[in-house]
Amino acid sequence: MTRKPPDIDAETVTLAASGDAAAVEAIVRGLQGPIHAIARRMLLDRDDASVVRGLTPAEMQRYRAPFRERAARGPVLAWPRELPIVGEPADVVARVERYRDALCRSDLPKLLFTVEPGVLVPPAVAAWCRAHLPRLEVIELGRGLHFVQEDHPHSIGRGLAGWLSRVPA
């Protein structure tokens, strides 16, 4: 088994998902409560703190559009419960550990975009990846949080195109 990367804790996921600690804790830990009200708060009634440059009202409308109807919010309530946070849920943690071990053994080329301070790939996780993943190329994009494609769309496109041109067919 390969040495494990640093855990992503509930506080990190809170920042990534919404900035609303109570909502994220309720969803991730499956607590009872007004679940559709929580989903509404996460999806519709917030400004996005996960983008450094901020989002315009028109951009926020695009993100919110699929979730206007209450029934459409179900998947957004389900996915946080499947995030492997400090050992739970156990089946997801086991699957992630198997993938991690496979990536550590794999000779396939890998690409990782990083940002500072980052959310799901903070500096400690990026350092672990550099140390343990063979044939990993890391592209540092600069300042960013969670939705890095909003802050660095052109750099990501150029980085991916350049990496693909260097990867043997």
Automatic annotation (TrEMBL):
SUPFAM superfamilies: alpha/beta-Hydrolases
Annotated InterPro entries: AB_hydrolase_fold
Protein name: Haloalkane dehalogenase
Protein source organism: Nannocystis exedens
